[in-house]
């Protein structure tokens, strides 16, 4: 009897997983055929579409220059450009942000003599990197506030044990792409300094933060001792990241980059895509952030008008061009409604996956980019009504 129940349970799980895989394939197909989306995400593009990013690469860099070898040439040009944008002495290109941040914090641990890194439990290394800090780099993460926001200055000052580095993810993605106020951020940094800790910014999406803070990039980055930025999350590059900070730190980081396997033979396609993002996408991000606020308000009004008993946009006014929508439905139910809407109307309102943070709850991320600028508030409300009509 027990074996039969176990087999039935296993078959049910496998059936649900197969349905989700099929829905993902349908969502990809719907995205590709949709006439209207809020963002054309690079990760669902074809190889041909992605390579088109380099069709006018001669506008970005002298293509008659010799290709890079192990980090010279065009790689050094990108590093210099990033250092200039962030106002730091130097920068180093890395194949991944995971590697860049491990190297940065390992270097700081050697300098402070303390391998403890204080961070939020929703920060990327704690949620998405399989405990890489402890398993690979010998670092010891300790968790600050569990609230869905960045830690406060009081929480930094009152933390019960010493730490060598404070890591702040700006914005904190898994809490809804949230940022502190400028005053709160400066107070947090000062509190860490009072404890003789260095401050490192996980700025994967720092490019998107200037509207919220009302400050230029170099002033934001200038609060920290080191900063990591991504070239694909906000800028649509092929991949890659940069670590920026004092020249001595960056020189040491390049040594560890080699040891970690990041001394790649040639990287010019990825670097060219990063230069394209800095040239073409970075100047448009403030427009995306401002329009995301229009979209978020229209989503709230649309769900209220459609009679959904409870719906939430997190944060209520987006801090960046990305935010969350929470609905009181099973995640599979809303995922199916989103795909059906796209298949039947050509409008894909929710292009990203729906997760289930708890029973009867569903949450999805919203990303507003160039395609989303074409949507008016009324367009969003109409799309919400269409979506809700497909819910049970």
UniProtKB/TrEMBL annotation:
Q: Which GO CC terms are listed, alphabetically?
A: cytosol
Mind listing the UniProt keywords for this protein, alphabetically? Pyridoxal phosphate
Question: Membrane as a keyword?
Answer: no
Q: Does the keyword Nucleotidyltransferase apply?
A: no
Cofactor(s) the protein needs: pyridoxal 5'-phosphate
Q: Which Pfam families match?
A: Beta_elim_lyase
The protein's matches in InterPro entries, at most eight in alphabetical order, are given as: ArAA_b-elim_lyase/Thr_aldolase, PyrdxlP-dep_Trfase, PyrdxlP-dep_Trfase_major, PyrdxlP-dep_Trfase_small
Q: Which GO terms describe its molecular function?
A: L-allo-threonine aldolase activity
Q: Where is the Aromatic amino acid beta-eliminating lyase/threonine aldolase domain?
A: 74-301
Q: GO:BP terms for this protein?
A: glycine biosynthetic process; L-threonine catabolic process
By sequence similarity, the record places it as follows:
Belongs to the threonine aldolase family.
What protein is this chain from? Threonine aldolase
Q: Which organism is it from?
A: Streptomyces spinoverrucosus
């Amino acid at each position: 009897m027990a074996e039969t129940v176990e087999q039935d349970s296993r078959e049910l799980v496998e059936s649900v997983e197969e349905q989700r895989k099929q829905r993902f394939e349908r969502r990809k197909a719907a995205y590709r055929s949709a006439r209207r989306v809020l963002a054309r995400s690079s990760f669902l593009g074809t190889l041909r579409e992605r390579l088109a990013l380099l069709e006018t690469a001669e506008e970005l860099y002298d293509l008659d220059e010799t290709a890079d070898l192990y980090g010279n040439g065009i790689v050094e040009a990108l590093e210099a450009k990033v250092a200039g944008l962030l106002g730091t002495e130097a920068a180093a290109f890395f194949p991944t942000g995971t590697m860049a941040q491990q190297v940065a914090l390992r270097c700081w641990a050697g300098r402070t003599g303390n391998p403890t890194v204080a961070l939020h439990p929703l920060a990327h290394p704690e949620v998405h990197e399989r405990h890489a800090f402890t398993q690979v780099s010998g670092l010891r993460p300790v968790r600050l506030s569990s609230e869905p926001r960045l830690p406060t200055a009081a929480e930094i000052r009152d933390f019960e044990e010493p730490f060598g580095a404070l890591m702040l993810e700006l914005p904190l993605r898994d809490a809804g792409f949230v940022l502190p106020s400028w005053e709160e951020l400066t107070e947090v940094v000062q509190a860490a300094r009072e404890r003789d800790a260095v401050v490192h910014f996980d700025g994967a999406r720092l490019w998107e933060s200037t509207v919220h803070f009302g400050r230029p990039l170099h002033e934001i980055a200038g609060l920290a001792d080191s900063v990591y930025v991504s070239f694909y999350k906000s800028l649509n590059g092929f991949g890659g990241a940069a670590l920026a900070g004092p020249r001595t730190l960056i020189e040491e980081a390049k040594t560890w980059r080699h040891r970690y396997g990041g001394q790649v033979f040639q990287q010019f396609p990825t670097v060219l895509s990063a230069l394209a993002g800095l040239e073409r996408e970075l100047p448009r991000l403030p427009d995306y952030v401002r329009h995301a606020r229009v979209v978020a308000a229209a989503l709230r009004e649309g769900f209220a008008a459609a009679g959904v008993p409870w719906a939430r946009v997190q944060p209520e006014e987006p801090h960046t061009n990305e935010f969350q929508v929470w609905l009181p439905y099973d995640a599979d139910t809303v995922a199916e409604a989103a795909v059906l809407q796209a298949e039947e109307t050509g409008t894909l309102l929710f292009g990203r996956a729906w997760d289930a943070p708890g029973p009867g709850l569903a949450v999805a991320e919203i990303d507003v980019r160039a395609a989303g600028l074409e949507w008016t508030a009324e367009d969003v409300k109409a799309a919400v009504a269409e979506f809700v009509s497909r819910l049970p």
